UniProtKB/TrEMBL annotation:
InterPro entries registered for this protein in UniProt: Cyt_P450, Cyt_P450_E_grp-IV, Cyt_P450_sf, Cytochrome_P450_monoxygenase
Keywords annotated in UniProt: Heme, Iron, Metal-binding, Monooxygenase, Oxidoreductase
Family in the record: Belongs to the cytochrome P450 family.
Residues given in the record as heme binding sites: 458
Annotated Pfam families: p450
Cofactor list: heme
Superkingdom of origin: Eukaryota
Keyword Metal-binding applies: yes
Protein known as: Cytochrome P450
An example Gene Ontology molecular-function term: monooxygenase activity
Length: 516
């Protein structure tokens, strides 16, 4: 006999409800009454939900905790990819949320755009006074703020930092040369994170944080990102929100620096204060933002500026570290891709390009195979492994043969979309840079969303591309990288961002490779 999951859940709920009744006789009457009310409430919610019948883990239809547990276990990304393979384009992951991988989903949810869902409010860091475009769900206010900050993020303004980030990369190359000379295994993952963090320091504040030079995680700032990322990824969910706004996201908690968000706040504010006192600052992102405050005093104030700085510091280091790591890790597992990247680089050099000590962005842009490898790394191992949730507005929304009423949360998950065989073909889960040269790739680009898509997509993507192109091009040109133990898989947890670790490498200079 075959029972549908729908039937099993219904039957279980009713049996649980009936069992709870005799408990009245055994347990203290108030405890038992609470139990009856709770189970009854769950049954009612589930019975009446307009999302009934959408497949997914049965328990997720009752409570958000199924999702929260997977977020905290750090496996939400792979679990959701598997669930979509099993159930198709719609998977219910919470009483009010459906994860969507339907071909029309990106257009109808992210590009439409629907308003950001309540989950983003949990990114109000370090406390409720600091609202950035990242955490705002009021789309009118969000775009007002974003307009004031957008000048700092444009491609041309991001490029003004190129010379400064060259200086960061040069110091980083000295460290790599020392590891090449000694031949010892080292944590390349950490050193990629150091360079990512210091580059964002130059971009925002005309000053590096000093991780590269010191070769260590000063003050545990980077290590602190891991609990922060886990913490940030669940604070906005319904069972946690009251805790966030009433207790955790309280200015007192910020002042006492009791939580990881206080730590990132302190790092960002210290950098901001130093920047204000630094007479040698360039026309960096902060200069554009200060101009935004000057020109729009009725829209943004100093606290909004601080909130914006915090979200840029938080958003701009883990993500770039992850992307750089994914590039090296996957290239290592596809030796043919390394060889082709070397060949492309050697050909470019023979034509007089890529000659600067740090490869220029302009030269790196003329390396199509390298770019394909970067895009493929971003596709297969997206730095943001969290769904991007939006809320259905007035009138509801139809996607495919499904109708979602007002208030439904629909999320587009970069990992689910990027790993979907329906959208990317049978090899969706394989690292294959050649896919970016296939004839039908233009029709698939719309499903490439490491930066999100639409009005809430990543404003730092121009700067991030500059960083990724320059670091990877220089690495490909000058070094041979091997994992110390090629059979060892890296480790990671998919929270708000995913930052791999524990895959020590050895490095050699290409120009000395034949001598060793
Ligand atoms: C490989 C690097 C990066 C990746 C993959 C990435 C990815 C993303 C994604 C997926 C979002 C969320 C979009 C959404 O909610 O729909 C986002 C937002 C954001 N990112 Fe990035 N990011 C990267 C680098 C950066 C950098 C370098 C900065 C700043 C210097 C930055 C600053 C931000 C900010 C401020 C937001 C919030 C935007 C908003 O809601 O208006 N990101 N990023």
């Amino acid at each position: 006999m075959h029972f549908s999951p729908d039937f099993v859940v219904r039957a279980t709920a009713r049996v649980a409800f009936l069992l709870a009744l005799p408990a009245l006789a055994v347990l203290h009457q108030w405890v038992a009454l609470l139990l009856v009310v709770a189970v009854g409430w769950c049954v009612k919610e589930w019975d009446e939900s307009p999302l009934r019948g959408i497949p997914g883990p049965p328990v997720a239809a009752w409570t958000r905790f199924w999702h929260i547990i997977h977020v905290l276990r750090g496996d939400q990304n792979t679990i959701l990819v598997d669930l979509h393979e099993k159930h198709g384009p719609f998977v219910r992951i919470a009483p009010d949320e459906v994860c969507v991988s339907h071909p029309d989903g990106v257009k109808k949810i992210l590009l439409a755009p629907l308003a950001k869902a309540y989950w983003y409010e949990g990114l109000t860091m370090p406390d409720y006074r600091f609202r950035s475009p990242m955490s705002l769900t009021d789309m009118k206010r969000k775009s007002e703020l974003a307009r004031c900050w957008s000048a700092g993020y444009t491609l041309s303004n991001s490029l003004q930092s190129e010379g400064a980030i060259d200086e960061v990369i040069k110091v980083w190359l000295e460290k790599l040369d020392q590891f090449a000379e000694s031949g010892e295994a080292f944590d390349l993952d950490k050193h990629l994170h150091f360079v990512a963090f210091d580059m964002v320091g130059e971009f925002l504040f005309s000053k590096q944080f000093g991780f590269v030079k010191e070769g260590r995680d000063i003050g545990g700032i980077i290590g602190n990102n891991i609990p922060l990322s886990a913490f940030a990824s669940i604070l906005g969910f319904k069972p946690m929100r009251w805790l966030h706004f009433a207790v955790l996201g309280n200015p007192v908690v910020t002042t006492l620096k009791l939580l990881p968000a206080g730590h990132v706040f302190e790092t960002a504010m210290k950098a901001l204060d130093n920047r204000m006192d630094n007479p040698d600052s360039r026309y960096d992102a902060l200069a554009h933002w200060m101009q935004g405050v000057e020109k729009n005093p009725s829209i943004v104030n100093k606290r909004d500026l601080q909130a914006n700085v915090i979200s840029a510091v938080a958003g701009g280091n883990d993500t770039v570290s992850c992307a750089l790591q994914a590039f090296v890790y996957y290239m290592n597992r596809h030796a043919d891709a390394w060889f082709r990247a070397w060949e492309e680089m050697d050909a470019a050099m023979s034509k007089g390009r890529c000659q600067d000590q740090v490869v220029s962005f302009a030269d790196a842009q003329q390396l199509p195979f390298l770019q394909a490898c970067i895009k493929e790394a971003l596709r297969i191992f997206s730095p943001v492994p969290m769904g991007l949730p939006r809320e259905v507005g007035e009138g509801g929304l139809s996607i495919g043969d499904r109708f979602f009423p007002k208030g439904t949360v629909l999320s587009i998950h970069p990992w689910v979309i990027h790993h979907s065989k329906q959208l990317w073909g049978d090899d969706a889960q394989v690292f294959n840079p050649d896919r970016w040269f296939q004839r039908d790739i233009a029709s698939r680009e719309k499903y490439f969303l490491p930066w999100g898509q639409g009005s809430a997509s990543c404003p730092g993507q121009h700067f991030a591309r500059i960083e990724l192109y320059k670091v990877t091009a220089t690495l490909v040109r000058d070094y041979i990288v091997h994992q110390a133990d090629p059979a060892q898989g890296w480790r990671w947890k998919a929270y708000f961002t995913v930052v791999p670790h524990s895959w020590p490498c050895r490095i050699r200079r290409r120009d000395q490779a034949s001598a060793k």
